[in-house]
Design brief:
Largest sheet: none
Number of strands: 0
Helix content: 55-70%
Distance between the termini: 53 Å
Number of domains: 1
Order of helices and strands: HHHHH
Oligomer: single chain
Radius of gyration: 18 Å
Strand content: under 5%
């Protein structure tokens, strides 16, 4: 199964969405919550961790930032840029 499919991500998922999906899936599949089938929950948790690591490694080595603040700054209007640099002066 592909990493983004396992984590339920879209092609255009933000870093925030990736982290939230990982967090929610780990809560859902934590072995402590599946006392009836600990082995299956452990296996799925390991797959989720591996998928998350693959995606985060890709994001870290990608040419452009996935950080939402960086994206917002890259698309500032001149007025937004001025306010960000100098405040309300």
């Amino acid at each position: 199964m592909k990493s983004k499919t396992l984590l339920g991500l879209r092609e255009t998922s933000t870093l925030k969405e990736i982290k939230l999906s990982y967090k929610n899936l780990m809560k859902e599949w934590h072995p402590d919550k599946h006392k009836d089938d600990v082995e299956k929950a452990t296996q799925i948790s390991m797959q989720i961790n591996e998928a998350y690591e693959i995606i985060m490694d890709y994001c870290d080595s990608y040419e452009y930032s996935f950080d939402e603040d960086s994206i917002k700054k890259a698309t500032y209007t001149p007025q937004e840029w001025w306010y960000d640099k100098f405040g309300n002066r």
